[in-house]
Amino acid sequence: MLMSHYIDIMKKAGVKFTRPRKLVLDALQAAKQPLSIKEIHKRVRNKADLASVYRTVNLFQDLGIVREVQFGEGYQRYELIGEGQHHHYVLCIECGKLEDIDICLLDRVEKMTNFKILSHSMEFQGLCHSCAG
Length: 133
Fold this sequence. Notes:
By secondary structure, this protein is an alpha+beta fold. The chain is 42% helix and 19% strand.
């Protein structure tokens, strides 16, 4: 998703596009997997303090720019929400390896239940090939 898409969302909400917000967006766009607040802060450490990262991520959640992803690790991770796209993951509970998987059952669940699904998440936990031995 282009940066301009996220800037447009902020403008429509009357929110300024500040340097810390740009840094957090850049960090999330460059990431190949969801990041924790600490991981985002590590990527922007010299340019934005931890409180700014927290505030920015909370604002982005409120604006629908990021979504929270939980893997039962005791903390949340965050990823950008792209137009019409989402991700599902498998996490190794031993080494922490995280892989994006290209499976979604949304259409099947809607057909089976006659629900219009508004949001969902699907994450798997297990042992990667190396850790399974």
